[in-house]
Amino acid sequence: MNFRENHWNEETYGEFIEYLKEHQDIKYRDFHRKIITKDPSEREKIQLIGIRTPVLKKIAGEIFRGSWKEYLLQEKKEYYEETVIRGFVIGKIKDIDEFIEYTKIFVKEIDNWAVCDLFLGKSQVVEKNEEKYLKYIKTYENSENPWEVRFLLVALLGNYIQKDYLGYIFSLCDRVEKDYYYVKMAIAWLVSIAFVKFPEETKKYLKKNNLTPWTNNKAIQKIRESLRVTPEEKENIKKYKK
């Protein structure tokens, strides 16, 4: 398909789905299905075609160079790859207000860690509008939807591991921890990256926090697994276990 010149409607979106199926990698699909969620019942609900991420990114880039707004208006079918591509397209938007409006729609579609985590890493549009984007993502602090909470944590990880935001990040981790695996893992991941960049500040947090023992110790485990932490620091950090 010529995504740059394509005009999106029900017919061309159907052709798009067939195009995705032509790029199916069965072995990758079966592998990815095993890791996309720990819950077997949730796993069966996620419809996978089986396309590697670099291919999805390339397709999204081509769509964005064409009529991307038309594309985002199309009614999505049921495939994981559709959602990932939509996220990649939204991530290329340069206007912060437009970016936030499309992100609000996208966040409602998140139902697994891969869609959440692939959506946005370090972003130029966020980097240029840190305070405005932070105000938006903070709206998910009290959400009952664990994927919205994970989205907030991952957004902080990608764009806000800075000294000025550490106080907020640590207090948030204490407040939003839920008995949900993918939220707890996101907190552990966030704390471990904070340690890599700001070890002294993070040690103070690990010394006194309101995290459950599981999440606290998972953060320490991830710190010890990091290639950017010295052997001495890895040994020293053990004393902060609960």
Structure commentary:
By secondary structure, this protein is an all-alpha fold. The protein folds into two domains: 1-119, no CATH class; 143-242. Helices cover 66% and strands 0% of the residues. The chain is built from 16 helices and no strands. The model has no long low-confidence stretch (mean pLDDT 94).
Descriptive tags:
single chain, 242 residues, mainly alpha, 2 domains, 16 helices, globular
Q: Spans with pLDDT under 50 lasting ≥5 residues?
A: none
Radius of gyration from the alpha-carbon trace, in angstroms? 19 Å
Class by alpha and beta content: mainly alpha
Distance between the termini: 55 Å
State the major sheet: none
Strand fraction band? Answer: under 5%
Question: What portion of residues is helical?
Answer: 55-70%
Mean pLDDT value: 94
Helical run tally: 16
- Overall 3D form: globular
In sequence order, what are the helices and strands, one letter per element?
Answer: HHHHHHHHHHHHHHHH
Please specify the SSE layout and strand pairing.
Layout (H helix, E strand, L loop, with lengths): L9 H13 L3 H10 L4 H6 L7 H12 L3 H6 L6 H11 L5 H12 L5 H7 L4 H4 L2 H8 L8 H14 L6 H11 L4 H17 L1 H9 L5 H13 L5 H6 L6
Helix pairs in contact: 4-6, 6-7, 6-8, 11-13, 12-13, 13-14, 13-15
